[in-house]
Specification:
alpha/beta; seven-stranded mixed sheet; globular
């Protein structure tokens, strides 16, 4: 049996892991950066994928590969398979007014019923409406719409612009999976079908949409002439996934598990056997990559809150953690409402961060560090409450992401989340989940690989922290 590879084409970089399908041991890995910004030409993802594969030692011995990637990104293609304009990413908020327009036209309750979610600026449908209104000539050229993982998988199979792809621009060969389709704003996790009326209302006309693959289904194999040295032909491809669904696979998450991921964005998501439709818009009723559902709350502001405050204090993250743990819970009355980049949940795209409770006694380096950690985690705790309010069970929290390794983050998480917290060993869980999906496509069975834990911080509830945060409102 050959090896399997998983790809995480995230906002900031592309990561590749190569695993042994017997036991799931990681044998090698690689990465390459993506450009900064909220719009990126997909060619940058293709170049980074090739560089990350090379950094991982290539694909020799790899029998199957799957790509997980950032959700929502709008890849607009013309009839010749050319990318019409740089892709608008999930964190591009210029489509906030478009989201409001779609809600006004259909109603939040109706959109939640039809798609499981109320659209915000992150969703693909809102970006298509923005394109229709802001760049009508470009919108008129759109013949197909894909998501980042859809486009990369299509390219790996040898499709794309005729000048660079051996199999040419066969748009009908585009594929996706249910987890990524559920983030478009025009696909229903409950019915498993596209809602073409919503698509046409957003963009102005119908287009080719990727075929939605079932869990464990393969769209085909890599082409040895995919236009990329180092990518051999004949490697079985997995269906691919959105990044959060990929992480759920990598963690082996099941019903009762809630994942709190602290990266560029913050996410709270849980595996649910039933679909969710929250007309308030707080919870997105996404699908997962294994046949179930993945109700999710996302925040634009997460680890970057810690980056900003560490920079302000002139310290690294280890010292920021030490300072925060030196302060008492509640940070002496300092409360940071950390909407540095606007916010998705709550839906406040134009908001800014605010620091409350500054006095001569409270304004210390230690309290500011503590307020940053508490503000970040209180926002995520609100997300956990919103998910549970939809009837989703929460028996434990799996705390992941780069910031989850901070002792201060672990300690405060145990204080503000009223569910037992465990911290898995550091890992590229989105890419690890994609590798599990590759194994599923290769063998026909979802693998069950162990996930070692790094910590289980002692629960020390401090409800006053959240009460002070909530008192500041929005």
């Amino acid at each position: 049996m050959g090896l399997v590879a998983g790809v995480d084409s995230s906002t900031q970089s592309c990561k590749v892991v190569v695993r042994d399908p017997i036991g799931g041991t990681v044998l090698r890995n690689g990465r390459a950066p993506h450009p900064d910004g909220t719009e990126v030409h997909p060619d940058a993802w293709w170049d980074a994928l090739r560089a990350a594969i090379a950094d991982a030692g290539g694909l020799d011995g790899v029998a199957a590969l799957s790509v997980a990637a950032q959700q929502h990104g709008m890849v607009a293609l013309d009839g010749a398979g050319e990318v019409i304009r740089p892709a608008l990413l999930w964190n591009d908020t210029r489509s906030a007014a478009a989201a409001a327009a779609l809600i006004a036209e259909f109603g939040a309750g109706e959109l939640a019923r039809r798609t499981g979610s109320v659209p915000v600026a992150s969703f693909t449908a809102t970006k298509l409406r923005w394109l229709r209104d802001a760049e009508p000539e470009a919108a008129a050229r759109v013949a197909a719409v894909a998501l980042p993982h859809d486009w990369l998988t299509w390219r790996l199979r040898g499709y794309g612009p005729a000048a660079t792809s051996p199999l040419g621009p066969d748009l009908a060969q585009l594929t996706t999976d249910r987890s990524d389709a559920s983030g478009t704003g025009y696909w229903s996790p409950a019915t498993g079908e596209y809602d073409h009326e919503l698509l046409v209302t957003a963009l102005g006309h119908g287009v080719v949409l990727p075929r939605v693959l079932k869990a464990g289904e393969s769209p085909g194999v890599t082409s040895e002439q995919a236009g990329a040295p180092g990518i051999p032909g004949g490697i079985v491809l997995g269906a691919g996934a959105g990044d959060n669904a990929g992480a759920a696979l990598g963690l082996g998450a099941g019903p009762g598990d809630v994942v709190v991921s602290i990266g560029t964005s913050g996410t709270v998501f849980a595996v649910s056997p039933e679909p969710v439709a929250d007309e308030s818009g707080a919870v997105a009723g996404f699908a997962d990559a294994a046949g179930a559902h993945l109700p999710l709350v996302a925040t634009l502001n997460a680890a970057r809150i810690l980056d900003a405050v560490a920079g302000l204090l002139g310290v690294d993250h280890a010292e920021l953690s030490r300072l925060a743990l030196t302060a008492e819970p509640g940070a002496g009355g300092l409360v940071l409402q950390p909407y540095f980049e606007g916010e998705r949940t709550p839906n406040l795209p134009d908001a800014t961060a605010t620091l409350y409770g500054m006095t001569l006694a409270s304004t210390t380096r230690e309290n500011l560090a503590r307020a940053a950690v508490e503000g970040m985690l209180c926002g995520l705790a609100d997300g956990l409450d919103a998910v549970r309010a939809q009837g989703v069970a929460a028996h434990r929290v799996l705390l992941i992401g780069g910031a989850a390794q901070s002792p201060a983050v672990q300690a405060v998480a145990a204080q503000v989340l009223d569910v037992p917290v465990v911290v898995p060993e550091p890992g590229e869980y989105v890419a690890l989940g994609a590798a599990a999906q590759a194994t599923w496509a290769l063998e026909g069975v979802r693998p069950e690989w162990p996930v070692p834990l790094a910590a289980a911080p002692a629960s020390d509830p401090q409800p006053d922290i959240r009460a002070a945060y909530a008192a500041r409102g929005v």
